[in-house]
Design goal:
Blueprint (H helix, E strand, L loop, with lengths): L5 H14 L3 H7 L2 H16 L4 H29 L2 H13 L4 H16 L3 H8 L12 H48 L11 H26 L3 H7 L9 H11 L3 E2 L2 E3 L2 E3 L3 E2 L7 H28 L1
Antiparallel strand pairs: 1-4, 2-3
Helix pairs in contact: 1-5, 1-12, 3-4, 3-8, 4-8, 4-9, 6-7, 6-8, 6-12, 7-8, 8-9, 8-11, 8-12, 9-11, 9-12, 10-11
Length: 309
């Protein structure tokens, strides 16, 4: 297997971390993920009807369309890219597939008011990045929710797209983002999506299998611990992948993550990951520094691959 242009990946990662996705550009044209989401929503409206067999088949068809469409678009962009400006354009498009800067911004927006004792503002900020009910969360509940989102999104929004860009270039990155977006929109087990979203959920499990384990290792290394907790507790998570970065973060912090939560007023039981007390505001600030060091470690690893080539 030939790895795709690690030096381009490194520059794209650094560029996205430094600049992010400009708010003015988002306001003007949206973001590629929002475009993908609009397409998924349209396909869902047209295909999510009928009995379970039809819904499963249509849901599988949506995943196939997303993978082929993303692959063709990525391949077309790379084919048209010629010379320095073309390569720069490919790297610019690649930056939109990463969420290092936006994830840091969103979690800092929670940590700031939480450290200042403004629980209401912290609840409002964490509600933008998690799906659970947040109106009644205390300090520990807000810190726990934000820490879990930070750890899991390090995999989904940083390591997974980087891994697939390295494996398959821009087509791989775009396909990864399309599947991840589909899973977040329709990969649920409620009455509406149980059958239609099965293929999106299973495809996301496959796409994130290797990146989740790499993410956990990077978090443990960046945090100076957490490896034993990750190996012990990752399997207790409901997701085959989510437990790896979350358990690693729990171990690195010496805190417990997971536990019961509420979604739309309904209680949901979850296993505990790690040992000790639930995280506090100061632990969320520590988690941010671990996340930043893990991102830097990813850069070093990609740079090492580029140098070896």
């Amino acid at each position: 297997m030939t790895l795709a242009r690690p030096e381009q990946l490194l520059l794209a990662l650094i560029g996205e971390a430094a600049i992010g996705y400009p708010a003015a550009l988002f306001a003007a044209i949206g973001h590629p993920v929002t475009w993908i989401g609009a397409g998924i929503a349209a396909l869902e409206r047209g295909g999510n009807r009928g009995g379970p067999v039809r819904r499963r088949a249509m849901g599988g068809g949506v995943v196939v369309v997303l993978i082929i469409g993303a692959g063709v678009i990525g391949w077309g962009m790379e084919t048209l890219a010629r010379g320095g400006w073309g390569v720069a354009a490919v790297m610019l498009v690649a930056t939109t597939g990463f969420a290092q800067r936006s994830l840091d911004d969103h979690v800092r927006a929670v940590a700031g008011p939480l450290l200042a004792g403004d629980l209401i503002a912290a609840r409002g900020a964490v509600a933008r990045i998690v799906g659970r009910d947040t109106d009644t969360l205390d300090e520990a509940g807000v810190a726990l929710a934000a820490t879990e989102s930070l750890a899991e999104s390090f995999c989904d929004g940083v390591v997974a797209p980087a891994f697939w860009f390295l494996v398959a270039g821009l087509p791989g990155l775009l396909a990864c983002k399309a599947i991840n977006t589909a899973d977040s929109m329709i990969g649920h087990r409620d009455d509406r999506y149980r059958w239609f979203g099965w293929a999106a959920a299973r495809s996301d499990d496959v796409v994130n299998w290797v990146p989740a384990r790499l993410s956990g290792l990077m978090i443990a290394a960046a945090g100076g611990g957490g490896f034993r907790t990750m190996v012990r507790d990752a399997r207790h998570h409901a997701s085959p992948n989510g437990g790896w970065p979350e358990a690693a973060m729990a171990g690195a912090l010496g805190r417990r993550l997971g536990g019961p939560v509420r979604y739309d007023g309904e209680a949901a039981a979850r296993a505990w990951l790690g040992d000790g007390a639930m995280p506090e505001a100061a632990d969320l600030a520590r988690a941010l520094w671990i996340y930043r060091r893990a991102c830097l470690l990813l850069w070093v690893m990609v740079g090492g691959v580029a140098w070896l080539r």
